[in-house]
């Protein structure tokens, strides 16, 4: 299979990667978050139109394998395992999350967030994630923190999320890897 950056349907997200990498690095610096030791297991896109999501899906199908297709928060979300990773900072992401547009309008179409895995007690996820960032960083104008518990129709693992954003990019924290979540969908 081809490298994702060589697929015509993905030219816009290939061109968007330097912007995302810089914005993510800047957000981490604002938060005093040292991303170097953290395990981020996948990267996610955002788009405004179904036609864009369908074009990206067609492109991702040429350079990866569909791991999962699920309805989460009333919209389809596909996960693809790529043959060649998406490189951001020190991370190499082999899994890409592709959600179809939902109610929320994002300021930019392209790469939007990374998801960091913090294994451990789900009850302490928020505290453990917040401890990685400075209080001063979290109190800055334009920084928002949100908690949620997205759940696919067949998921069996609770998947709380803490998301920190500056409105341009987001860093999310979960207790499980996305591949553990997908495996829970397949369990009997």
Automatic annotation (TrEMBL):
<protein>
    <submittedName>
        <fullName>VOC family protein</fullName>
    </submittedName>
</protein>
<dbReference type="InterPro" id="IPR029068">
    <property type="entry name" value="Glyas_Bleomycin-R_OHBP_Dase"/>
</dbReference>
<dbReference type="Pfam" id="PF06185">
    <property type="entry name" value="YecM"/>
</dbReference>
<dbReference type="InterPro" id="IPR010393">
    <property type="entry name" value="DUF991_YecM-like"/>
</dbReference>
<dbReference type="GO" id="GO:0005829">
    <property type="term" value="C:cytosol"/>
</dbReference>
């Amino acid at each position: 299979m081809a490298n994702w950056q060589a697929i015509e349907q993905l030219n816009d997200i290939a061109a968007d990667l330097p912007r995302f990498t810089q914005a993510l690095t800047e957000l981490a610096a604002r938060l005093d978050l040292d991303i170097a030791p953290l395990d981020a297991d996948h990267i996610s896109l955002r788009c405004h139109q179904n036609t864009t999501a369908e074009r990206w899906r067609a492109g991702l199908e040429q350079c990866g394998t569909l791991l999962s297709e699920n309805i989460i928060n009333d919209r389809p979300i596909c996960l693809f395992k790529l043959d060649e990773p998406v490189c951001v900072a020190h991370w190499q992401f082999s899994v890409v999350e592709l959600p179809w547009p939902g109610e929320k309008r994002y300021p930019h179409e392209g790469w939007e967030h990374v998801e960091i895995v913090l294994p451990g007690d789900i009850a302490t996820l928020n505290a453990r994630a917040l401890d990685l960032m400075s209080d001063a960083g979290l109190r800055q104008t334009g920084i928002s923190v949100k908690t949620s518990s997205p759940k696919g129709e067949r998921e069996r693992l609770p998947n709380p999320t803490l998301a920190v954003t500056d409105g341009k990019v987001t860093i999310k924290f979960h207790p499980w890897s996305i591949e553990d979540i997908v495996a829970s969908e397949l369990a009997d």
